[in-house]
Design brief:
The chain has 222 residues and is an alpha/beta fold. The chain has one domain (2-221): Formyl transferase, N-terminal domain (Rossmann fold, 3-Layer(aba) Sandwich). It is 35% helix and 26% strand. Strands 3-2-1-4-7-8-9 form a 7-stranded mixed β-sheet, sandwiched between helices. A two-stranded antiparallel sheet has the order 5-6. Strands 10-11 form a two-stranded antiparallel ribbon. The protein is globular. It starts with a strand and ends with a strand. The structure holds 5-O-phosphono-beta-D-ribofuranosylamine. 5-O-phosphono-beta-D-ribofuranosylamine is lined by residues 7, 9-13, 101-102, 126-128, 192. It comes from Thermodesulforhabdus norvegica. It holds the Pfam family Formyl_trans_N. The record marks 163 as: Raises pKa of active site His.
């Protein structure tokens, strides 16, 4: 199974995948049954690109800002061109799945259509909350500020909505009285690293099965 990983920031989830691919991670999930063929970022300064290069993985920055300026703020046109650039990069590799790992741009329905895989798109995301609670950009803050006593991590297929696609797996972690949002984030991230690789492995092993329940696609692991 070949994957491309999309990052916008520090890329610690990407690093966790690389470590597992190299058999260098300690923890629960110790291997990654997929080849990371390319890493793409919407920001040239994303440290995730550097992590990829250090391991000889082709790394590309697609400058959304350039296209937004070029089209004088017309985001629809800008996103279309940025995504065309992404598609032309991905065409060089035989990509089965795109894994979003802290990627801060929405992918348009036109882009997703290129990755149709049966009942889903071949694009997966990790979200730092127990969906459908706390979608959006601030999963850890929202969980902590709500006073939750358990936080959650969700890995799901991407659909046309925001953090709404079919859930592959979730995991929870406790939140203790002395926690801060930062200590919660660290605990959650260590769960993210295990859960994301586990889900990629299940996909590579073709262990996902899909059913339709109340007009939603529901996934079980077999
Ligand atoms: C993670 O918390 C992920 O769940 C969220 O963005 C963060 C990315 O962190 N979507 P990193 O770049 O992998 O360190």
């Amino acid at each position: 199974t070949n994957i491309a990983v999309f990052v916008s920031g520090s890329g610690t989830n990407l690093q966790a995948m690389i470590d597992r691919r190299l058999g260098r991670a300690d923890g629960i999930v110790r291997t990654l049954k997929a080849d990371i063929k390319a890493v793409i970022s919407d920001r040239a300064e994303a440290y995730g690109l550097e992590r990829a290069r250090k391991h000889g993985i082709p790394a590309y920055a697609v400058d959304y800002g350039f296209y937004i300026q070029k089209h004088r703020g017309d985001r629809e046109k800008a996103y279309r061109e940025a995504e065309e650039e992404i598609l032309s990069v991905l065409a060089k590799y035989d990509i089965d799945y795109i894994c979003l790992a802290g990627y801060m741009r929405l992918l348009t329905p036109d882009f997703l259509k290129h990755f149709r895989k049966g009942p889903v798109y071949g694009v997966i995301n990790i979200h730092p909350a127990l969906l459908p609670s706390f979608p959006g950009m601030h999963g850890y803050e929202d969980t902590f500020n709500y006073g939750c006593k358990w936080g959650g991590i969700t890995v799901h297929f991407v659909d046309e909505g925001k953090d709404t696609g079919p859930i592959i797996a979730q995991a929870v972690y406790p939140i203790w009285p002395d926690d801060t949002v930062e200590s919660v984030r660290l605990r959650g991230l260590s769960v993210e690293y295990e859960l994301y690789s586990q889900c990629i492995n299940w996909i590579a092993e073709e262990r996902l099965s899909f059913s339709r329940i109340n007009s939603r696609t529901v996934i079980s692991i077999t």
